[in-house]
Amino acid sequence: MVKQSIFGRIAQLAKANVNAIIDSAEDPQLMLDQMVRDYTDNIAEAESAVAQTIGNLRLLQEDHAEDVQTAADWGNKALAASRKADEFRASGSTADAEKFDNLAKVAIQRQLQSEGEARTVEPTIASQEEIVEKLKSGLQAMKYKRQELVSKRDELIARAKSAQAQSQVQDAIKSIDIMDPTSEVSRFEEKIRHEEARVRGASELAASSLDAQFESLEDLGEQTEIEARLAALKSGGQAALGSGS
User: Fold this and answer.
1) What are the angstrom distances between the C-alpha of 212 and each of 16, 201, 206, 218?
2) Residue 63, C-beta contacts closer than 8 angstroms, at least 6 positions apart
3) Is the dihedral of CA 43, 45, 51, 53 positive or negative?
4) Going along the chain, which residue ranges are E strands?
5) Nearest to 128, CA basis, from 68, 70, 49
6) Residue 117: enclosing H or E segment and its boundaries?
7) Is the pLDDT of residue 61 over 50?
8) Contact 148/18 with Cβ under 8 angstroms?
9) pTM of the model
10) pLDDT tens-digit readout, 186-240
11) Residue of 66, 57, 47 whose CA lies nearest to 126
12) Which tops the pLDDT comparison, 99 or 179?
């Protein structure tokens, strides 16, 4: 009953459709992790059951081989006793001949008994051999399915990480689009241009103020000349004016 239960579980797990299970799971990665654990536990249990079944089969095979060998040994003893009886009978010793014939009969009876025991166990051995082969095949299928699950889980994790990385890149791109650094540079450049214009304006203003100062100096010099000439006229008349020229 236990072996049949293990065999049924092996068959069920081996036939599991991994993709269908993933599609129906709310969290495929968690589902796969749990399935890998379940497969690992069931494989360990199945291996123990298969090992026990194989061990029992080997015991049956050993007992069968022993029965076959025992039957052969009794057959050899029956043959030896029968030949001895023939020798005594040929020599005229009927009593001894009958004695060894009786021993041969006993040996043949034991031979038949051992052969019967060997035949009785042969169907069981054949059945167990078939079960062992199915268990081995199912166990191998389970191991293959487990490896498939591990590969699927690893692939899923890798794809999830890749999708997350792509999402982060897309978010970063959106952030760049929202706060375009080139627009910030443009604003900064415009601010500098305004500052440069202000400096040029201040420079022009300073230059015009300096020109006005020089012009005032020239006006002052002319006024001084006029005053000097007027003073000369008053003090010396035309001669002073002419010498001044």
Assistant:
1) 101, 16, 10, 10
2) 121
3) negative
4) none
5) 49
6) helix 94-178
7) yes
8) yes
9) 0.53
10) 777 777 887 778 777 777 776 666 666 666 666 666 677 777 777 778 787 554 4
11) 57
12) 99
Cβ contact 4:130 at 8 Å: no
CA distance 195 to 199: 6
215 CB neighbour count, 10 Å cutoff: 10
Question: Could you tell me how far CA 228 lies from the centroid of its own chain?
Answer: 108
58 phi and psi angles, rounded to 5 deg:
-65, -35
Helix 94-178 × helix 28-90 angle, to 10°: 170
Q: Residue for token digits 């360990």?
A: 44
Q: How is residue 238 written in tokens?
A: 């035309």
Q: Pick from 34, 111, 26: which is nearest to 75 by CA?
A: 111
Maximal C-alpha separation, the chain: 208
End-to-end CA distance of the chain: 147
What is the average pLDDT score of the chain? 79
* Helix-then-strand count for the chain, H and E: 6, 0
2 touches 49 (CB < 8 A): yes
Tell me the two tokens of residue 117.
Answer: 């025991």
Residue 145 near residue 101 (C-beta atoms within 8 A): no
